[in-house]
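Task card 7
Instruction: Convert sequence to structure tokens.
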Amino acid sequence: MSTLTCEEVGKLAGYSRGHSYQRFGSKEGMLVTVVERLCASRRKYLERRARVDASGIEKVLDFVDLHLGGVSNSLEMAAYFRVLAAPVLAMPKLNRAIDAARAETFEDISRVLRESRTGDRYESASESEGRVRIIYGLMTGMALQHAHIRREREFNLVRSDVQAFLRSALSRNSDGLPQQPAGRMDNNYHKYWTG
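Output:
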């Protein structure tokens, strides 16, 4: 985003040199519009594909897998994660738009976690916030890795490992401690990251 120019976008889109400036006012205005469009596209993607019958941990797993599946199936979903992970630029309006997109994703994760909660176990605000950040980081990191390593078969194996990891992390044994991981994750991660 830092090297992008309105002239370049106009040329690629087949418009006159100044059309992007006329429409968006500036490069920052154009990028804010892109962020808003990507957020709207993400919402529509989730609405069309979310399982209404998912409950408990399955609701969280479905939410995360929808995002990771979207990275493979939708250029806009892949771009969404790239924008959220972009370095901060000297563009205050753009940074506010990216912060708002991030906050919306955090709120969605938080809502899904609340809706998935089973039992009467109390969870502190910091513990809940920590889970949201971990899930967000996991989704973003996997999405960015997919952008660099486009091997669908391996990515799908790792998606199933993400499911196993989250299931283990979100499940608790009778002592209230996290369950132990399923055990087969290391092999798939090694293949995915190293080829």
